[in-house]
């Protein structure tokens, strides 16, 4: 058992991971892009491949103002940010897409929409600091 544990990857508490209590949104649709964790749907439901060079929405969140401290980069939406990240995001970089950040889990409560850019102290400029519990991409 000891060898098996040594081979398993240790998940840092700062990652946006289900191992850290995060609840990943396994169904989403943003513009022509969509994701569903189950492949049991008929092929016709998926449509044909998309043309063009589309980029996934992507965000980097930091737990301190000024892009400092722990950070996580993701293109996933989260119903709940988990034990470490809940109510800790203080600055962020929106790489692609428009993201909606919610005060409460499961996309509820007050929210703030942000497009591509650097938000060095976003929550002190646009609202109270350290209050986000969930977020999702809302457009490309």
Uncertain ranges: none
> Rg, please?
17 Å
State the share of residues found in helices, binned by percent. Answer: 10-25%
Q: In CATH terms, what is the architecture?
A: Sandwich
How would you classify the helix and strand content by structural class?
mainly beta
Structure description:
With 140 residues, the protein is mostly beta strands. 11% of the residues lie in helices and 40% in strands. A hairpin with a 3-residue loop joins strand 4 (58-64) and strand 5.
Short note summarizing the structure:
This protein has 140 residues and is mainly beta. The protein has helices spanning 2-7, 82-85, 122-126; strands at residues 23-24, 27-30, 33-36, 58-64, 68-74, 78-80, 91-96, 98-104, 108-114, 117-119, 134-139.
Structural topology:
Layout (H helix, E strand, L loop, with lengths): L1 H6 L15 E2 L2 E4 L2 E4 L21 E7 L3 E7 L3 E3 L1 H4 L5 E6 L1 E7 L3 E7 L2 E3 L2 H5 L7 E6 L1
Antiparallel strand pairs: 1-6, 2-3, 4-5, 4-7, 7-10, 8-9, 8-11
Q: Which labels suit this protein?
A:
single chain, 140 residues, mainly beta, Gamma-B Crystallin, domain 1, four-stranded antiparallel sheet, three-stranded antiparallel sheet, 3 helices, 11 strands, 40% strand
